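*** Query protein ***
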Amino acid sequence: MDQVDQIKQGTSGSLRVLLFGAEATLLGTSEISVPAEEGIRTVRDLRNWLAYRHGKLGPLMNQIRVAVNHRFAADDTPLGPDDEIALIGKVSGG
């Protein structure tokens, strides 16, 4: 990892992931902290890590959108420790 990557990922920080609705209920928490050591660099990395570490989310991951700093993000979007990351699941209502 080069110096720029270390700055972007953070050497001692972690990623903070916010959960809402069914996803928060499923995991029993509204926030997950992902240690920097996990090497999460992109939204795709985060999706894979969440599906592996929190198996209950696995089947839902293709229905969950990820927002980074209040904007929906593509899977190749880079992530850093200062980003606000939110999982936005399907919602319904009328």
Residues 45 and 75 are 8 Å apart (CA to CA). The chain has one domain: 3-77. The chain is about 25% helix and 20% strand. The first strand starts at residue 14 and ends at 18.
